[in-house]
Predict the 3D structure of the following.
Amino acid sequence: MSLTSHNRPVPSSFDISGRKIAYFSMEIALSKSLPTYSGGLGMLAGDSLRSAADTGVPLVAVSLVHRRGYFEQHLDASGQQTESDVVWSPETTLPLADQTISIMMQDREITLQAWRFDVVGVTGHIIPVFLLDADVEGNDPWDRHLTDHLYGGDTYYRLCQETILGLGGIHLLHALGCQPEVCHMNEGHAALLAIGLLEARLAPASLHTASEADADAIKQQCVFTTHTPVPAGHDKFGLDQMLRVLGHERSSAIERFGCLHNDLLNMTYLALRFSRYVNGVAMLHGKVSQQMFPEYQVQSTTNGVHAATWLSQPLQQLLDTEIPAWRYDNQYFRSVYGIEPEVIAATHAPSKQRLFATVKQRTGVELAPNVLTLGFARRVATYKRASLLFQSPELLIEIADRIGGLQILMAGKAHPADNAGKGLIRDIFSVAAKLESSKLRILYLENYDWDLGEQLISGVDVWLNTPLRPYEASGTSGMKAALNGVPSLSVLDGWWIEGCAEGVTGWSIENCEDETVEAGRLYHKLEHVIAPLYAHKGRWAEMQRHCIAINGTFFNTHRMIGQYVANAYFPPAVSIAASNQTVDDDEVRQIVLA
Ligand SMILES: *Cc1c(COP(=O)(O)O)cnc(C)c1O
């Protein structure tokens, strides 16, 4: 059955019957103009698909349309955040899939249509992404808004969305003629796809007839990536909500197959129960997750970023001349060692200029092009500790004086419901106002998104990251910086444990329970190691080259998607050893989880 009306585009078909892998994600950063992502998870999903397209992986993806998107951030002079929706219209942008489907949810039928976004790779290989949309005539008026807001609404709204993504997504793919061999749950949000697979396997019989063998067959099909050790990142729903949204049959199947945890529907445990391969997103995160879920085997696949998406234009032009194969195969980044460091360093100046022009345009402030500039941008969350840098404000002023000036650019959104997070932004504004001097400039830029992120990571001199260990599962913005020859100064957490070669690709900040001590270490490196090196242009240029050659070669999604194909989607017949052995067990044990 297909719905068409006069103002709708003609449905368009796309043969996905040969797609072996189905990738499910609540958010995907598909293009700069679409508000279908909020932050790192969506960026990673988008970068993964872009690399899958470039490298010809037979994959299809599913997400929600998010008609009102993730919000645009506004900050007033005191740093008070307000939000506005970013409304977009798929009708005028994308083709409609030629099938609609209906599922039972909340004890009534809901019809879902899907818009197709094509991610096109360098050789023309396409990864079709189907964006499920509940805004269909005939649906209950409340239901029509279920695919409007990314991470909006209450838990009931969220469970409905996750039902649409997982259950709806599976039924849509089947209706479109795709029977994926592998289903990848990018975070627990998509875990209900397992129930969708179970329903489809048993149909027309009911879920009541499902046996352990049926559940095991589903498990053989599924792969699950967990993305955070922060408890709030693991969705949980009350049993009453589960029953109201999913109905009796599915709820009792979920219970019978042991997917409840502490008497809650916990999407992580549902995903774990139904996945044959589970992984964290960096070596340490895999180990931490292994300790969180000792009854399951958890592997590690370290994240990456899509190089062509994040490399600055000047650097892309240089690489296209010197090592054009990089677009297909990121291993060739190693060959930047054949380019003179000064030539690479010269590509950074226009990026810094472009960033400073944006800053001027947005804030009226003119930054100095030759002054050491730090970047710090990420979602506002307590564990990210944006304030560590301001632990001893007087000291920071003195250092800025002694090293000939310091500029700090910050950005980040707080979730609309996160009042503590919004308070953190106001705190930074008030500290920044107090610290402001001729030698120290601190600016907090509005609306951190793809566009601003790209300018920041390529335009600053050093990328700063100060999370509380081990909560930064991976982090990817530092990888984007590295690709552009920008070193990181970071706490040894997430990807940086693997990416930090001290003094070569950047610097570590040794963590300490006493935050004043930890901040002191940060200041010390800034003044005595980083600033002197920055003053030595030749050695700085060598460091920029190391960042690309050493870290760009590895922390990219071409490598990452290849690892997923080899280890998770189509693993070798012999069982593989745990992939996170490079992180010391004792060290992981010492890191106390709240
Ligand atoms: C890369 C990116 C992120 C994720 O970066 P982290 O290092 O994980 O904080 C978040 N938001 C935007 C806009 C990005 O580009």
